[in-house]
Design brief:
four-stranded antiparallel beta sheet, 744 residues, Topoisomerase, domain 3, alpha+beta, Gyrase A, domain 2, single chain, Topoisomerase II, domain 5, 5 domains
């Protein structure tokens, strides 16, 4: 026995294993279990295991659409006890979601009782609610008893469950899916089943169809709550091509005239997965905080139909402008992400595009057709064998009767006399006497001819790929006719809508007043009312201090330049006010932990800045090029790998002074530095040993200035240090600060 294995008195083994290896092995097993058995749907039927087990258990309980309802507690109990050994609450939540017409585009469960509402209220307890399958769920299960899919043993080995459903309905895209696994996630919006069937038929007719060809049939998602899709067509195409992207949704609204020239806005549809009650709470909170200056009031007049009434502040307000401000500030506009990460037929997680998903569904339907046909052929063969045996009886009736009456072993005698199989002999011996009448013989011959013709037809189907795809096309046409029309099938989400060209001057909604923006060394930002003096006492957290302070106004925009070369923009009115510590700037911006703010300035049109990295490369950028609309900022300076952005100084003047950590000063004309919108820039100063320390842009007539003693020293005669850009420079004048910083 190896030295690292010890036996215990009970006969077990103790093995020495490194903790990292043991944890890695166990965590990997957990991660794979989460990915393949919990969080990601199968591309073939679009279901996760819990949903598949729910439908299978309800099928076993014979809860068909035309049958009666059964208590959800009974269904959940069967699922948990036989197939899904997890908590009953998680199973019931999955069942409830499949029954909510505002959550599922094509509900798989027909619920009776309180199954929650769009306000976010929970469903009643499972002992009160009842359920049965819908026609859509029945289509998902169609043919499951005909050996169309594989089965596997359940967790305790006492039952069998399907690995995947036959899925005559394109459920993955029709109902969508969402889930978070370990290291990966999925997010698929619902679509219109009729459009999906049309696209699938296009793919059958033209196997080389591109995403553009398919998008002629599928203009975008179709959410159960309706709404308006305002995503550009180019972005939609890119999302469906790659399997990753997103869709921007807006509420549907219209203007309603009231008395005496007044009006109001009525919202009739809200974005998918937005809870109406929380939406109203959000709008009311913003109204109290005076962040919706054009809005007077909002109230909910909904019944089972959504009706939100929005009252404007004044009748002179433009309705489009009011709604645009609402869309920007509230969940009346939301974004649904697309990440088509699914399990393929080999149970491997993959991100697929639209064409791949449809192709996988069609291939699955082809496998189902072949297996169903083979199953039917086997059943026909068994029946024909028995019918052939029956016909032997009618041709030799007297001899068969004699053998049955007189022989001790009639089965063996029948088999030997008429060359019958054991199955045929058993069938003959099991015949009833009344089956020997002439009319019964005619029925058997008729059935034999009918089955023989069906057998020939099915054999022809198996032998011809074109016939198989024609049969699949007919099935998809039937699915489109059943689920692609009427109240359930009509498109609910308006697709192809363009964003209205509404111009909003947001600064006109902000009260203009002076403030002082204060940024601490540890990245806390705050604003104090008024323009405080330079010598004013400022308080910070223990161990923190002043980094930058700026005089600004609430209508200004503050631009922050970080060590990653990105510029970030903060609206001055959203900076936390008061005499507290403020808020970490990382909560307002997407700034990585290893990056830090270098400088901050108030944006002014027409200004220019010299940007530089620590390796001495830089360029001049206009202030407009440093404005960023997103939290993620805008990449302006692109430092070399391993280098950091270091400086952002105003480019006011005609001369540049550069000094490095090697204490070499170089002065050259500003026009030698190019103006760029983004890039690494050019070499400002060359270093053999060292890096950039500081830069100053100044006017030639004014001279170079730096702090000296308690004041400022100005050096006008700079001929000794003048040169061309990218030079090495010379030792600075006597008295230049040892910090190698101008610090004017």
């Amino acid at each position: 026995m190896p030295d690292d294995i010890m036996t215990t008195p009970e006969g077990g083994e103790v093995r020495d294993t490194r903790l990292a290896e043991a944890l890695g092995e166990r965590y990997l097993a957990y991660a794979m279990s989460t990915i393949t058995s919990r969080s990601l749907p199968d591309v073939r039927d679009g279901l996760k295991p819990v949903h598949r087990r729910l439908l299978w258990a309800m099928h076993q309980l014979k809860l068909d659409p035309d049958a009666g309802f059964k208590k959800c507690a009974r269904i959940v109990g069967d699922v948990m006890g036989k197939y899904h050994p997890h908590g009953d609450s998680s199973i019931y939540e999955a069942l409830v979601r499949q029954a909510q017409d505002f959550a599922a585009r094509y509900p798989l469960v027909d619920g009776q009782g309180n199954f929650g509402n769009i306000d976010g209220d929970n469903a009643a307890a499972m002992r009160y609610t009842e359920a049965r399958l819908t026609d859509v769920a029945q289509a998902m299960l169609q043919g499951i008893d005909e050996n169309t899919v594989d089965f596997r043993a359940t967790y305790d080995g006492e039952e069998n469950e399907p690995v995947v459903l036959p899925a005559a309905f394109p459920n993955l895209l029709a109902n969508g899916a969402s889930g978070i696994a370990v290291g990966m996630a999925t997010s698929i919006p619902p679509h219109n089943a009729g459009e999906l069937c049309s696209a699938a038929l296009e793919l059958i007719r033209n196997p080389g169809a591109t995403t553009d060809d398919l998008l002629k049939h599928i203009p975008g998602p179709d959410f159960p709550t309706g709404g308006i899709l305002v995503e550009p067509k180019e972005a939609i195409r890119e999302a469906y091509e790659t399997g990753r992207g997103g869709f921007r949704m807006r509420a549907r609204w219209h203007k309603e005239d009231a008395k005496q020239g007044t009006w109001r806005i009525i919202v009739t549809e809200i974005p998918y997965q937005v809870q109406k009650s929380k939406l109203i709470e959000q709008i009311a909170l913003l109204l109290d905080e005076k962040k919706l200056p054009l809005l007077a009031d909002i109230r909910d007049e909904s019944t089972d139909i959504i009706r939100l009434v929005i009252e404007p502040k004044s009748r002179t307000v433009d309705p489009a402008v009011l709604m645009e401000t609402m869309f920007r500030a509230t969940q009346l506009e939301s974004r649904f992400s697309l990440n088509m990460n699914v399990l393929d037929a080999d149970r491997t997680p993959r991100v697929m595009g639209l064409r791949q998903v449809l192709r996988c569904w069609l291939d699955h339907r082809h496998v189902v057709l072949v297996r169903r046909t083979e199953h039917r052929l086997a059943a026909i063969a068994r029946r024909l064998e028995i019918l052939d045996g029956y016909l032997v009886v009618y041709l030799n009736l007297d001899e068969v009767i004699r053998i049955v009456r007189e022989e001790d072993k009639p089965k063996e005698a029948l088999m030997a006399t008429f060359s019958l199989s054991e199955t045929q002999a058993n069938a003959i011996l099991d015949m009833r006497l009344r089956a020997l009448r002439k009319l019964e013989e005619m029925e058997i011959r008729k059935e034999h001819r009918k089955l023989s013709a069906e057998q020939k037809s099915l054999q022809g189907l198996l032998g011809s790929e074109s016939k198989r795809w024609a049969a699949i096309s007919s099935e998809i046409e039937a699915t489109r006719a059943k689920f692609g029309e009427g109240a359930l099938g009509n498109r609910r989400t308006e697709a192809g809508a363009l964003l209205p060209a509404v111009l909003i001057d947001e600064s006109s909604f902000v009260e203009r007043e002076p403030i002082t923006v204060i940024l601490s060394e540890k990245g806390w930002v705050r604003a104090q009312k008024g323009h405080i003096a330079e010598d004013a006492e400022l308080r910070f957290k223990e161990g923190d201090g002043l980094h930058t302070w700026l005089h600004a106004e609430t209508t200004d925009r503050v631009v922050l330049f970080a060590s990653n070369g990105k510029a970030y923009t903060l609206k001055a009115d959203i900076i936390p006010r008061g005499r507290g510590d403020g808020q970490p700037v990382r909560l307002l911006l997407d700034l990585a932990t290893e990056d830090e703010i270098i400088t901050a300035h108030v944006h002014k049109e027409g200004e220019r800045f010299l940007l530089a990295a620590e390796d001495g490369k830089g360029f001049v950028a206009r202030a407009e090029e440093m404005l960023a609309e997103k939290r993620t900022g805008k990449q302006v300076l692109v430092p070399e790998a391993g280098k950091r952005a270091m400086l952002c100084v105003p480019a006011e003047g005609d001369t540049v002074a550069v000094i490095g950590t090697n204490r070499k000063l170089l002065v050259f004309a500003l026009d030698q530095v190019p103006e760029m919108t983004r890039g690494r820039g050019v070499q400002l100063q060359t270093y053999r040993d060292g890096k950039l320390s500081d830069v100053q842009v100044f006017g030639k007539a004014t001279g170079l200035r730096w702090k000296h003693g308690g004041g400022v020293r100005t050096e006008a005669d700079l001929r000794e240090w003048r040169g061309n850009r990218a030079g090495a420079g010379k030792q600075p004048p006597t008295g230049f600060p040892k910090s190698n910083r101008f610090e004017v």
